[in-house]
TrEMBL record:
Assigned keywords, A-Z: Membrane, Transmembrane, Transmembrane helix
Residue ranges crossing the lipid bilayer per the database entry: 20-42, 68-87, 94-112, 140-157
Keyword Transmembrane helix (UniProt): yes
The organism of origin for this protein: Deinococcus sonorensis
Name of this chain's protein: DUF2243 domain-containing protein
InterPro entries named in the record: DUF2243_membrane (IPR018719)
Length: 164
């Protein structure tokens, strides 16, 4: 038999695992959205398009490699997130609200946007969301979108009321 304290510690550990899993899954989903929509579909930028403007075959190859490595990172975050999420929901535990899961995903996605935006767009200037006229507005809009997802995600994620 396990004591109530042991059961509470186990639930807290599972709670941390599924929350981290949801956040990392959100990071991966945000990265995939960025890479698929902004890099491939809209073709606004590639991973290193500020340094290697994709106007030659050689530069396009370099950018495509950068995008591919970026997607490998997105896949790693996604798989780790799924594994943590899965392991955090195994066995006996309270039923966590759907809003908390959605919150972890939004928080992770917003975290991705703001870190990627600050590092790649502003600090390293590897690329911008949409280079050219209004470039700064697009970059700041990307950060604002990330901040909104962080705030909404945090509020939803904090909803820990469980169903017994």
């Amino acid at each position: 038999m396990t004591s109530q304290a042991e059961g509470g510690a186990r639930t807290a550990g599972l709670d941390r695992r599924w929350r981290w899993g949801g956040v990392l899954l959100g990071v991966g989903l945000g990265a995939f959205f960025d890479g698929i929509v902004l890099h491939q579909l809209l073709q606004w930028h590639h991973m290193v398009s500020s340094e290697y403007e994709p106007d030659t075959v050689r530069n396009l190859k370099i950018n495509t490699l950068g995008d591919g490595l970026f997607h490998v990172g997105a896949a790693i975050f996604t798989v780790i997130g799924l594994l943590l999420l899965w392991s955090g929901t195994r066995g006996r535990h309270p039923v966590w609200p759907t809003s908390a899961l959605i919150g972890t995903l939004l928080f992770g996605w917003g975290l991705f946007n703001d870190i990627e935006g600050l590092v790649d767009h502003h600090l390293l200037q590897l690329h911008h969301v949409r280079p050219g006229p209004n470039q700064l507005a697009y970059d700041l809009g990307y950060l604002l979108w990330g901040a909104v997802m962080l705030v909404i995600g945090w509020a939803l994620m904090r909803n820990t009321r469980t169903k017994n």
